Amino acid sequence: MKKRIAMALAGLLVVGTALAGCGNGSGSSDSGDTGESGKSDIKFYGKVIEYTSGPLMCDALEEQLGGKYNFEMLQVDWGNLDKVIRTGIASNEPCDVYNVISTSLSNFKDQVVDLTPYLDENNGEWRKCFEPAALEMCTVDGKVLAIPWEVNFQTILGNKEAFDKAGVEIPESWNYETFMEACKKLKDAGYYPFATPMDLAQGAWLFGNGMLSAAVNAGTYEQYITGELPFTGQETTDTLTAIKALYDSDYVYPGEGAVIAKKDEIQAAFSQGKVAMIANVAAGAKEVQSSTSFETVSVPWPSVGDQPAYEGVSNAFLIPKNAKNIDGAIEAIKAFTSADIQGIHAEAGYLPVNTEVEITDPFVQGLVEQSKATYGFSFPQTAEYRDYIVNNLMPDLILNGGVEVVQENLETFRQDYLASKE
């Protein structure tokens, strides 16, 4: 049954610091121990204060299971997330539940509980609550090692007034050819069609989504994510050519300097009605929409090919094998991903993973539909490769040599990666 949730929840939680709570067991009892209250303890490293829904979801979890467990709610330290998990596990006094970014799961694959049996028990009752794409992001070597509680990806926000003025209808998905046609109409109507940030590690968005969609459409996705697909091939050529055409046609704000555009700059231009579309993360899309004076709509990212495919990532919960209260951790994660608590996330404008949550906001509905085309894996990202696609690929493509130069550089990184695996 689909459920809609009211936002009113009583009570505030007292939280400790992340490293003190999870990496050092001194002065505290084992999480599985029961005290005088008869309740066992759960260290829950999953309070996300950056989301308006985060504290409310933790409040709801404690309200729902507080009669059975003593929760120690710990704030997520995003800048040191992997370190916090490693330190906690190595101390042999880990948290029972850790928030983890799905792309980091392979780093912990031998240290965490395989959650596949829990998803599949009772005829897969728990598994059926999730979109398959969300669970796939948390799967390593055929095992689900974490349970997603939200999916995030790159999306586009559009000025509905600009689209109406230009006579452009927003489709459920589109390829670069159709996207370019829309950009021309928007430019003719007096708008810069598109803007995307190049700071804050977001410079790789165009290439990442383009290359992924090209591989998916060509049937070479598995080769791409294992490093077996040459960057000298047609998939890369098509991706880079499509992106370069967008810039060469002067469709990207602010024109000259677009390859160094900052997030604050393009958001200001969008708010002022100068730009028709801006790239943004789905998790922050509702906040931007609520701040504009015009109607803002969700727009799909263009794909290289007709099948949409977007790079995605999950925030998820893992359980260390040496956790003191594995059974309690399972129960807590089930509650956190239930329709009741996920509904709080949806009410705040974020993307729930539970398919039983009723979403009434058309804007969020559009984002949820887009999330069904997300993929959690891409080319293996070494530090050198990541630095290149974030900071240098776009300048090389648009200003310093073009498609062939970028392909040669990417292929060098691929060969280096393959050599490191020998």
Describe the protein in words.
- The chain is α/β, with parallel strands linked by helices.
- It is 42% helix and 15% strand.
- The chain has helices at residues 18-22, 53-65, 81-90, 116-124, 132-137, 160-166, 176-188, 205-218, 221-226, 234-248, 263-271, 285-291, 326-336, 339-347, 362-371, 383-398, 403-420, and strands spanning 40-47, 69-75, 97-101, 139-140, 143-144, 147-159, 192-195, 275-281, 296-299, 310-318, 374-375.
- The strands form 2 sheets. Strands 1, 2, 3, 6, 7, 8, 9, 10 and 11 form a 9-stranded mixed β-sheet that branches. A two-stranded antiparallel sheet has the order 4-5.
- A hairpin with a 2-residue loop joins strand 4 (139-140) and strand 5 (143-144).
- Helix 2 (53-65) packs antiparallel against helix 14 (339-347) and helix 16 runs antiparallel to helix 17.
- The chain is globular.
- Mean pLDDT is 90; it is low at 1-31.
Briefly characterize the structure.
This protein has 422 residues and is an alpha/beta fold. It contains 17 helices and eleven strands.
Keywords:
two-stranded antiparallel sheet, D-Maltodextrin-Binding Protein, domain 2, 422 residues, globular, alpha/beta, 17 helices
